């Protein structure tokens, strides 16, 4: 056998091995649309820091399930769609030090992602848990709050044709849940509430 | 032999039937009226941990109600999107008192009014496979292939629909449907399925009963096929 023939066989073998490995893996790139919110925005100029790490976040579970779950683009789209529902004016920033003139700045980061599939839980649902840390700063860059916010989404296994599609759907439900919590609960976070109260007092002072 | 197979197939076909029980409770004696611009929205409950009411079941009920004269049903997803984030699994009202509280928010109240929603029909429940047994094996060889075996599974549907009047925050009635049926798959060469339409029968049962709430008094209440 010539050297070229050996290389050709090895290449074929490697390609087949890769195809076999890919066949066992679950790769999900979360995609979906988010509706414009129906909420009363805070009368503030808000900043939203969506850094590269957040925008391209990928959750990987290499140990048991060979699961790759790319949620960065979808969570960025969700937060962008909320902008007008959170503050009367919202600016997107690349980093906290680029802030200028905003009253409150939100820096979201992913703390943890958990994904559960029916074969693991014996339930006939795919589940996605998201845990975010929403760090809140005032216009001077002083920390106001670190709000740990969790969200949950599920989808029954038999609705959709593949594991990927079911996980995507569960992730979209979880992201909508995160959006709902942000819109409805953010002003009620005790530290944010105290800051809002203080800023109103300062604003009302003669 | 041929006759025995036909008899067995017929017996299975008959056995693959669905039993449906529908119960109704009305809060008002007269049928419910809708103004010219008023609509109904049928919504599925999604807050439970281990199941959620299937969107296709909700669509099926909506289609049944859309056939009633002067009744217009809003699409579930379009409604939920237009009132986001108020009707998500975490935030949707579970009781009438909560709906009343939510509608104190002028933005939401105005959107509901703009959409013309008069009645909300909440449907809670699901269809699940309760038991399955048997197996079917298939094999393919060059120039030939086939399946052999026998499998059976039982499905149960339990749903309850509650009608809320958004105008006066009252409960107008409820309909409960329980359906169950067994399906079979017989494979002698080619697989022959005998599928019981459990969820379909549940939809027909609950949908036709809900139609009677909105059918004008005195009008014929023809069930939809």
Ends distance of chain B: 37 Å
- Beta-strand percent range of chain A: 25-35%
Architecture per CATH nomenclature, i.e. the level-2 architecture of chain A: 2-Layer Sandwich
Determine the strand fraction of chain B and express it as a percent band: 35-45%
Structural class of chain A: alpha/beta
Number of helices of chain B: 6
Order of strands in the sheet with most strands of chain B = 1-6-5-4-2-3
Rg result of chain A: 22 Å
The CATH class assignment of chain A is Alpha Beta
DSSP E strands of chain B, number: 6
Order of helices and strands of chain B: HEEHEHHHEEEH
What characterizes the major β-sheet of chain A?
Answer: 5 strands, mixed
Topology:
The complex is a heterodimer of chains A (206) and B (225).
Chain A lengths: L2 H22 L1 E4 L12 E8 L2 H4 L2 E4 L5 E4 L1 H15 E7 L10 E13 L1 H4 L3 E14 L4 E14 L6 H23 L4 H15 L2
Parallel strand pairs in A: 1-4, 2-5, 2-6
Antiparallel strand pairs in A: 3-4, 6-7, 7-8
Chain B lengths: L1 H14 L2 E9 L12 E6 L10 H12 L6 E2 L1 H7 L13 H7 L3 H10 L1 E25 L2 E22 L4 E25 L3 H17 L11
Parallel strand pairs in B: 2-3, 2-4
Antiparallel strand pairs in B: 1-6, 4-5, 5-6
